[in-house]
Design brief:
Keywords: Cell membrane, Membrane, Transmembrane, Transmembrane helix. This protein is α+β, with helices and mostly antiparallel strands. The protein contains ten helices and six strands, in the order βαβααββαβαααβααα. The chain folds into two domains: 3-127, Alpha-Beta Plaits (2-Layer Sandwich); 143-314, Up-down Bundle (Multidrug efflux transporter AcrB transmembrane fold).
Length: 340
């Protein structure tokens, strides 16, 4: 999955405003997307810093990734400790060309100021903001996913007093999130659905969307899961065996789960008709995942899994058959010999 921040590249170039921006950028490249280079050093090194920054135009000369309509001006703070220079690029902030120019500058600036003792440099701007934000999300997403999974496991295990049910909840909720990511890649990183959904593919998914989708979908999936498993659990203490309890629980909850899913799919599908690509991706991803979760996971996969587990649904509790109160544990119908 390719991630990036949304920008003007995601809009159709048939839009008058986008065409006007393209003409302005073509006529004045240095006034469009700009990298802000900043260097901090002791004030007595101001001359050395200025000399180092003056080498940047010579490095960008002849590079199509940078604008050449004017020479970048070096500015200094009042005390001479900070120097900045704006380096333009003819590419839009979220384009591949802008990101490549940022990578070059971030490699050149440390080399240029290396001879200056005590100097520190950085490259900022809109391009850097998008790249750094996307990188930060990629780095933090495993931690967020791990926290959600751990919290789900602990909470579900405590509520149902069953580690098997807690583990199955995680295993059953992950496929819907994975399917959502797959749909986003298939639809929005390719061009075959552009006319169908009226969007311009940038070959990527909005950077913040995967983490947002995962958290929301996991919460919705757990809502369905707890509701269905609770109905199954209620049937077990009434003397039903596991198979009968699963059949009874699914029968009692299927109508509610399916109706709720239909409403949510319809609501989120409306997002796919909006003009901005991030809302289109949000709506399509949520609608596809909820449809899969409610129709396939909860109606088919969950009953099969719980029936196959049988008395292990109570693990690590007492695996011997026992009739318990309505609000505690799992029970199976004892046979004439007292065994399940």
């Amino acid at each position: 999955m390719e991630l990036k921040q949304p920008g003007s590249d995601d809009l159709s170039h048939d839009i008058p405003v986008v065409r006007a921006m393209d003409r302005l950028t073509s006529a004045f490249p240095s006034e469009g997307t700009v990298h802000q280079v900043a260097v901090r050093a002791p004030a007595e090194r101001a001359g050395e810093v200025r000399a180092a920054l003056e080498t940047l135009p010579s490095r960008t000369e002849g590079q199509e990734l940078f604008a050449h309509d004017r020479t970048p001006a070096i500015r200094a703070s009042a005390d001479g400790s900070v120097h900045t220079v704006a380096v333009g690029t003819p590419h839009s902030p979220k384009s591949d060309g802008a990101r490549e120019s940022l990578e070059l500058l971030r490699a050149w600036v440390p080399e240029a100021i290396a001879p200056v003792r005590g100097a520190e440099g950085a490259v900022g701007g809109k391009v850097a903001q998008g790249v750094d934000f996307t990188g930060h999300l990629k780095d933090r997403m495993p931690w967020a996913v791990g926290f959600v999974l751990l919290l789900t496991f602990v909470t579900t295990g405590a509520v149902f007093r069953s580690l098997a049910v807690a583990l199955s909840a995680i295993l059953l909720n992950l496929p819907s999130a994975a399917a959502s990511f797959g749909v986003l890649v298939a639809v929005f990183q390719n061009t075959w659905a552009e006319d169908l959904l009226d969007f311009h593919s940038s070959g990527a998914v909005v950077a913040w969307l995967p983490l947002f989708l995962f958290v929301v979908l996991f919460g919705l999936s757990m809502d369905y899961h707890v509701f269905v498993v609770s109905r199954i659990r209620e049937a077990a203490p009434d003397g039903a065996n596991v198979r009968d309890a699963v059949r009874d629980g699914i029968t009692r909850s299927a109508g509610v789960v399916t109706s709720a899913a239909i409403v949510m799919v319809a609501v989120f599908a409306v997002f796919g008709t909006l003009s901005t690509v991030e809302f289109k991706q949000l709506g399509v991803g949520l609608a596809a995942a909820i449809l899969l979760d409610a129709v396939v996971i909860r109606v088919f996969v969950l009953p099969v899994l719980m029936t196959a587990l049988g008395r292990w649904n109570r693990w690590p509790g007492n695996l011997t058959p026992a009739r318990r109160s309505r609000n505690r544990g799992w029970a199976v119908r004892p046979t004439a010999t007292g065994r399940p």
